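so im writing up the methods section and need the FtsX-like permease family protein record in one place, dumping it here so i stop losing it
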Amino acid sequence: MSTTHPSPGGGTLATWVRDLGLGIRFAVTGGREGWTRTLLTAVGVGLGVAMLLLAAAVPAMMGARNDRGYDRDYSWFNEPPKRTASTVLFAPADTSFRDDSIRGLLLKADGDRPVLPPGVEAMPASGEMVVSPALKKLLDQPGSKLLRERLDYRPAGVIGDQGLLGPAELAYYAGSDKLVARSQDGSTGNATRIPHFGRGESKPEPLGGVLTMLVIIIVVVLLMPVAVFIGTAVRFGGERRDRRLAALRLVGADSRTTRRIAAGEALFGSLLGLVVGTGIFLITRQFSTEVTLYDISVFPYDITPGPGLAALVALAVPGAAVAVTLLAMRGIAVEPLGVVRKATAQKRRLWWRLLIPLAGLGLLAPLFGTVSQEDAGVNPYQVTAGVVLLLVGLTTVLPWLVESVVGRFRGGPLPWQLATRRVQLDSSAAARMVSGVTVAVAGAIALQSLFTGVQSDFVTATGDDPDRAQLSVSQSVDSGAQAQRVEKAFADTPGIRDVLGVIQDDAVQGNASTLKSEDITYATLVVGDCATLRELARVGAGCADGDVFLVQDPGGYGDMSFAKPGDTLDLNTPVTDKYTGTPQPWRIPADARTARSRVSPDGEQTWGVLATPAALDVAALPSPSVRLMLRTDPGSPDAVEHARNTAARIDPTLTVFELTATHESRKFTTIRRGLFIGATATLALIGASLLVSMLEQLRERRKLLAVLVAFGTRRSVLGLSVLWQTALPVALGLALAIVGGAGLGAVLRTMVGESPHVDWASVGVMTGAGAGVVVLVTLLSLPPLWRMMRPDGLRTE
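--- predicted struct ---
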């Protein structure tokens, strides 16, 4: 008869390799139950790995997008070059259609060897255009008739990937023979000459302290739930595993050996999860061209993790699986005759759990009031460590909270008793299941609090009043008659209810021809009807055609001392430093009245000489410009599209601006979009991970559920008990998330010099989103629950 000797309890490398290998063998040869647990772990870990690989690909993805953007850039040239056979004239012709922005550029070659934008094989001839695949698809749609009328060019090709930021970008290059090089003083011409496309020596501006901190917090908040879920996934099927380990104790294995064997099983599941996650990542990457989130799309080959980050994921996930398993086994006594869980015999202590968030607060406290947008010297490691500790602190407090609250419940309806008793028996599993939701919601609340605190630095008031006018157009014209034609064209546009139009030019002193250039003073001449002038200044109800009003500059910079009633002005304003040409005198009527400036619908404060058409013939203005403010018909949803078509017929480079009350910094907008995209992906991961967790817990309890049904327990009672088992820890987790998120938000606001404030509307939205995901997952878990209550659940192997 052979004797089984206990495994040595030492921690040598050979011992570790042997026991980990034995755990892997148990995972592979454990029959249907063993493989079910392993596959659940692999799926759970795989979802987290796919998210981590996506996050690891973000730097390369954004770098590739930025490089393509810089390679096609044309905005960095300070002085126009001389004309050569390779230079090109260009003029921006951006537009929008419905809610989509379209990047456009008009081109004209100077010679027979023109430089080409990236992705363009040949310079489009006049009247032709090359378009992005997405724009081609949009133009072909039946509802794009107005856009086809606006971009009335012959298709001559498609822009290649290297010329686009992403597959869904809408862009075109069109040839035009009407481009004329702009003069040095800008008085003539409509296009700029460039020697090549590309960024030259320019570099992107740094984000600044506040935006850098925002990016750091976003990364931490989005990835923390992933890490939490991976830690949860490697503990799937823990009860069955522990019973198998108890059998090993019967044949002589000591407690350390059983822990290492358990770690080996988790290691195999995590390695399989790496394979599954890589597969999910590679498969979903191929469909990235079909997905556009918040106007951002990417090419599949851009979504490539950096080698270093990919290696970090490949090493960190198995390492974390082993570490989490060993740590979890410290709370379990696996004996030859069974398993004793120490957690149920001893109440959890709170004091050491509070030390973790306090340590995080200690790291962030020195930064209170020191983070500003002007100072880019934020210590990313200090901020990251502090926020991570605060969020990890929530996951350590949650088990204590669940145990303390649920442990007080007694009595109640039968479903409630079954649910509370189950949670009381294993509060750790209940807390683990919702810890990811808790961290995600807390982080989202904190981020939203920080966003509301700093957005005033990046969201500024434009001064526009969309209630008085909805669109604006401005253009330099050759004559007053042309300005009137432009105004009439917009007045005849479908969907335009009213046009507030003025024709503007400058005037100088009547004796400007005899003055030195430094002594010449300018004032603005504005010609419009009384209805329009009332939107620019407080001219009163008595305004009539033929009246003239003198308006002082409200900012105090403009000089109106030479423009008084009866004074003579010279309409011939110098284009260069030296006065040239013949004076064109115009006398201000003696009955001209003064008026105060008023902020116009397009956010401007107009000053100078405001005249009605009968008082000043616009034909006398030598260098006029037209400025229009358009009121749209609320019943015409495509009014702005008709206005853009009118502008394109007048001049393809003419832009119609939609008046908005605020303007948001582009960098801030990009970061906000990144947050929304990441939050969407994280919520999807949380939903999938919760579903896997619930299925794993139901599988563990399948036999118990079947026994209860066999003894006559109604299925509705068991179904309600399972719902309560989910609802209780979720409610406690969300309550903790509200407190923790509000606290972290207050800390972050204090760091940027803002007073602590809780945006309860945002708290409600974030909490509702988290609860909604849980409700959806719970509903999806009901069909498997009904199946597991069948009598065949009593079968065993």
